[in-house]
Amino acid sequence: MTAFRTVSIDGLDIFYREAGSRSNPTILLLHGFPTSSHMFRNLIPALADRFHLVAPDYPGYGNSSMPSVNEFDYTFDRLAEIVEKFITAIDLKKYSLYVMDYGAPIGYRIAAKYPERVEALIVQNGNAYEEGLREFWDPIKAYWQVRSPENADKLRHLFTLEATKWQYTNGVRNLEAISPDTWNMDQPFLDRSGNEEIQLALFYSYGTNPPLYPQWQEYFRRHQPPTLIVWGQNDYIFPSDGAYPYKSDLKDVEFHLLDTGHFALEEEGDAIASYIGQFLASRLQPVPA
């Protein structure tokens, strides 16, 4: 059974999904933009017989609190701080990190700070290398350089239903395999009053991530977490150019490029669950059969 819980962190309600016995190895699942822990709705029950799974919603996403930009500092540093406090609040001592999209800069901040807690990495379209920021990012990079209303306006289309649907459908093999529940779940959260300004704040804050790439790469090299890469190779946002460099810094890498798009779990969820089960069973002890 998946439990749907809420914990108070710094006065905010942080919603999370949890399943599996705490006696089993923990996987902490960190979602991307513009979704929430909903992206893990199928993966969690697929692994809950062997693992303890926890998936929080960040502030401003899903069922967690959404303070305004005047009430909360929407930066990746602050989101990582909230997730770090969440980890403490629910008493997670060690865990494997599943990072996707925004989950990567949040998770890598925490991993680099507490490397002894991280048993393994599962990387699904989560970037830590300059090679992974290509054409899609050009207008966002312009916003990092000049935070003007004009540059912000060029990004607002990314919060529309058309753009949200595109994120789920671009690059997939079979459109009939992609449930419309995905974009129809995410879009009402994006459409909430004040949320567009939250997303623009985080687009701007994303510019703080590339300068940290060398630190995260040093974490990879120094601590060598076993790493499973399951990457949708047709992703226009985080292309597979960003997947290959992990191999240069990590010695224990299992590498899978999947013939799908950005939200690879939607089309390749069964394969990803199988890869995770086999990978962690061979790296972590004990993992029940």
From TrEMBL:
<keyword id="KW-0378">Hydrolase</keyword>
<feature type="domain" description="AB hydrolase-1">
    <location>
        <begin position="25"/>
        <end position="268"/>
    </location>
</feature>
<dbReference type="Pfam" id="PF00561">
    <property type="entry name" value="Abhydrolase_1"/>
</dbReference>
<dbReference type="InterPro" id="IPR000073">
    <property type="entry name" value="AB_hydrolase_1"/>
</dbReference>
<dbReference type="GO" id="GO:0004301">
    <property type="term" value="F:epoxide hydrolase activity"/>
</dbReference>
<dbReference type="InterPro" id="IPR051340">
    <property type="entry name" value="Haloalkane_dehalogenase"/>
</dbReference>
<dbReference type="InterPro" id="IPR000639">
    <property type="entry name" value="Epox_hydrolase-like"/>
</dbReference>
<dbReference type="InterPro" id="IPR029058">
    <property type="entry name" value="AB_hydrolase_fold"/>
</dbReference>
<protein>
    <submittedName>
        <fullName>Hydrolase</fullName>
    </submittedName>
</protein>
